[in-house]
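S1.2 Input.
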Amino acid sequence: MSTPTHEPNPFGYDGSPGEPGQAPLPGQLGYPGQAGGAPGPGFPAAPGFGDTGVGAIPPYPGPGPQYGYAPPRPTVTSSVAVVAICLFWVPLVGLVLSIIGMVKTAKGKARGRGMAITALVLSILVTLGAGAVAGVIASKPSALDPGCTHGKLAITEQSKQLNADREKGDEAALQADFTRVVELLGKAADESHRSDVRSAMQAVRDDYADFQAGNGDATKLTVDLQQIDHLCTYGK
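S1.3 Output.
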């Protein structure tokens, strides 16, 4: 009877202890204390988990900027951005504050970036609007003359009263209205600081005085009123 021979298993441990003194194949278990085998009783554990000795695996450092994690977000809101959104309606002041707020909140230095951007947009619109108004006023300085403001008000109010009394057919009230408008226009001409406004107010005053006397010229009054409208109205 022949003795069966043992052939090594190329795929790993097959349960046989192998030849005496033979080192186990890679991946093959051996006896305790045998080369390549599991540690036997009393064998020190491999350094690593929980070991602080030489060769120990360092603890996991946790998330941080060196691993690509974002830095913590700021928790303080920029006071300049808050003031800028409150004062955006003040020309130039709101613009300057909003620009400073943009700088203070750049690169996540502080919260309030959205407020700073909103304040910047609104302050630009306000500044442009204020500049447009200033340009219109500068182009027609005569409109700020006291003669213009008082004279136009007198013409507007007294013209309504004159038309109302004319429709009623009240001649006495009509004469009182003419007297009143002539008096107010004469006062506006005296208050004027500009010669062109003063002359225009005086001309309209004389036109109403002629109507009061019964020899008024409607065409001349219309032309003189157009001159006042040109001098005392912005954009004309």
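S1.4 Remarks. Residues 113-139 form the longest helix (27 residues).
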